[in-house]
Amino acid sequence: MEFQYSINRKMHNKNRKASDDYHWELVRSETNVLLEHILAGHAICPAVLKDYSKVRNLENFKRSQLFMIDIDNADKDGKKIKLGYFGFDDAQNDQFIRRNGLLLYTTPSHTEDWHKFRIVFFSNKRIYDKEEYKQLITKLIHAYNSDPSTSSGATYFYGNTEALYVTYENELDISLVQRMSDNRTEQSDFEEEARHTYNGNITKELAKQMLSAIGPMPGYDVWFQCVSATGNYFDKNEAIDLVNEWSPDKNQGTEYKIEHRYKKFGIGTLIYHAKKAGFDISQLPRSMKKKKENYNELKTHDGFEYSDLGNSRRLIAKYGANLKYNNTDGNWYRWNGTCWLKDEKNHVFEYTKLIVDELKIVDFNSPSANDQVRHFKKSGDRSRLTSMLALAETVPGISKLTTDFDQDHYKINLQNVVYDLKTDTTKPHDRELLQTKLMPIDYE
Q1: How many Cα neighbours within 13 Å face the side chain of 53?
Q2: CA nearest 122: which of 84, 66, 163?
Q3: Phi–psi pair at 262, nearest 5 degrees
């Protein structure tokens, strides 16, 4: 099984000079040679570059069959995460990787206490369109909560002369990736609702019934999700008893699996898989407290609900003073300090990304931490970013008409002040005047 990719022999482990980026070369090889380059410390770019270019950038992307994702187990500030930590051993036990992965290897920053590694997939289809490539790898990034900055087809990855590695030699059916996001969203949405509806009401006996419905051999991924959910909901000894009665681990032992469980799966995960297996969840006792609809009382990290509407409110709270939406011409306008300019380059869309980036900062001692992590994972989709803007367009104070702008014709907007023709006075530039025109002269 041969494939093409680009390597850079000038880069060694994490040592890189700016001039090194002009020394990329095309390679065709099997997995063992790719691994040799990694272990030699060479940097890898999964793309074939145009005209065998030695310059690596997105414009030179020609095609790729390799997908590489970075597992850093870090938040936005580079701090080690607790919720959703995915270790190198977890990856080796992940059924999707075992069946569809090409290679795992640790990065130069990997330590025993803080696992950092890469997952490499080989697609059964060559991807020629860089936007299609980005959409596909973004689904893999979301599935494994990996570094979102590696979604470009021209991303490069450092080698590691001391890497730990595991090879699988599998070919990934790209249709599995195309369906991945929808399935994940369905499960995460159900889990979030179930956590509010049933949390605190699931007894050991009910858990036993659900595990029985799932069956002792549901596939490793589902098995370990259920083990993790059980371990996160019940105390350790109760969880071990439940798993041992249901489907014990005969290799490393149930206690080991409970201790090394995924922290991100709660009781909603167990209910989800039981429902999929045919268990009647209507028999489960629901919480007596109805979920509050008053958003002012919601316990979120910032007081805004975890939804597209909540994100639009975050956007307005953070950037609303400098944003207007013109319903007449359908454009956003931004305040530049002197006047309101039409946002022709769509800078406002970048603000939505910054709002999502802030959701990555999680206080894991907060009761809303799990909800925030789930919401963050969904909020980065383009449809969610677009929805955030669409909901903000109609907010009073943000929503305007063309006739709302430039109403006072006696106030002339100059480069350094606003000059009032009626009173022969000046005043500082003012957002509230809604001026879109600026005369390129100073008042003297």
Answers
A1: 16
A2: 66
A3: -70, 135
Give the H or E element holding residue 6.
Answer: strand 3-8
Cβ partners under 8 Å of residue 379, min gap 6: 311, 355, 356, 359, 385, 388
Helix (H, G, I), strand (E, B) or coil at 206: helix
What pLDDT, in 10s, does the model give residues 307-334? Answer: 889 999 999 999 999 999 999 888 999 9
| 31, 60 contact by CB (below 8 A) | no
Other beta carbons within 10 Å of 149: 10
User: What is the full DSSP assignment across 222-288?
Assistant: HHHHHHHHHHHHS-HHHHHHHHHHH---SSS-HHHHHHT--TT--HHHHHHHHHHTT--GGGSPPPS
CA-nearest of 126, 154, 150 to 63 is 126
CB 127 within 8 A of CB 55: no
Contact between 193 and 275 (Cβ < 8 Å) = no
Joined tokens for residue 184: 């994940």
pTM: 0.50
Query: What distance, in Å, lies between the first and last C-alpha atoms of the chain?
Result: 75
Q: What is residue 403's DSSP assignment?
A: G
Two tokens at 319?
């950037």
Q: How far from 410 is each of 314, 415, 422, 437, CA to CA, in Å?
A: 36, 16, 6, 13
* 137 φ/ψ angles, rounded to the nearest 5 degrees: -70, -25
Say yes or no to pLDDT of 195 above 80.
no
CA pair distance 219, 74, nearest whole angstrom: 28
